[in-house]
Amino acid sequence: MTAAMITSTANAQVKHVAALAKKARYRRETGLFVAEGPKMVRELPRDRVCQVYATGRFLQDSSHACVTEGIENIQAVTEEALKAMSDTQTPQGILAVARAYRYSMADLLEGDGPRLLMILETIQDPGNLGTILRAGEGAGVTGVIMDQTTADIYNPKVIRSTMGSVYRVPFLYTENLAETLAGLKSRGVRLYAAHLKGSADYDQEDYSGDTGFLIGNEARGLGEETAAMADRFIRIPMAGRVESLNAAVASSILMFEAARQRRRGN
């Protein structure tokens, strides 16, 4: 435990954490992000923790001991102060300030076995992005690549939606998506675009080798330049009058089809 309880919402630490929760630019400048709630703090690798803030009530509850185990820098705060720091209307009593992850393309491509990459263009809904990471971990993706207009992965809403997967799935933002895609193709990664013009059903393709799925913006889909980089346009057959699926749902279907093929040897 460090220092006396923070009671004022005007406290410098409270303002610092609130800025991290609300401002992507501040997160980028500081290299820090906020992980909120017992689950996210419990799963946060201890070498990433800078400071934990928790209410007196939370700390006095013995059932929460596992959440803070191994953490030395714990600052007690009032309910009011924690709410000022939090991105949610009803804080869960604890949050952590943590050091951001930094990955290179080598991190996404290293390791044994075929690569399975999710490549996202202008995915703007934090819930969608977080769900793609969470489902991606379950499906065994080896990395997530995003363009600069995709939502900030350290947005608190994204962090919560990942349910901890943001700590374990390598990811990076690229300044030039077309150049990155060309580099992947030169390494033998086959690119599949989920596209309304797809001529092949997604479950008729072979994803047993190095594979990248291109997923576009929720409203507009993939840009023409990005789509043109695909080796194959694929589609998810629809019943009824539905034209397309939510980006996270479509991503999940594709990722788990690749996982199924790899699990069963195609």
Structure description:
Helices cover about 35% and strands about 20% of the residues. The protein has helices spanning about 10-20, 25-30, 40-45, 55-60, 65-70, 80-85, 105-110, 125-140, 155-160, 175-185, 225, 245-265, and strands spanning about 30-35, 50-55, 75, 95-100, 115-120, 145, 170-175, 190-195, 200, 210-215, 230-235. It is elongated and about 65 Å long. The N and C termini lie far apart (about 55 Å). The mean pLDDT is about 95.
Notable traits:
single chain, 266 residues, alpha/beta, seven-stranded parallel beta sheet, four-stranded mixed beta sheet, elongated
The assigned structural class equals alpha/beta
Q: Give the low-confidence spans.
A: none
SSE sequence, one letter per element: HHEHEHHEHEHEHEHEHEEEHEH
End-to-end CA span: 53 Å
The rounded Rg comes to 20 Å
**How much is the average pLDDT?**
94
Helix content: 25-40%
Largest sheet: 7 strands, parallel
Beta-strand share of residues: 15-25%
Beta strand count: 11
Q: In which order are the strands of the major sheet placed?
A: 7-6-5-10-8-11-9
Q: Name the overall outline.
A: elongated
Instruction: Tell me the number of helical segments per DSSP (H or I, 4 or more residues long).
Output: 12
State the gist of this model.
It is built from twelve helices and eleven strands. The protein has helices at residues 12-22, 24-30, 38-43, 56-60, 65-68, 79-85, 105-109, 126-139, 156-162, 177-186, 224-227, 247-263; strands spanning 32-36, 49-55, 74-77, 94-99, 116-120, 143-147, 171-174, 190-194, 200-201, 211-215, 232-235.
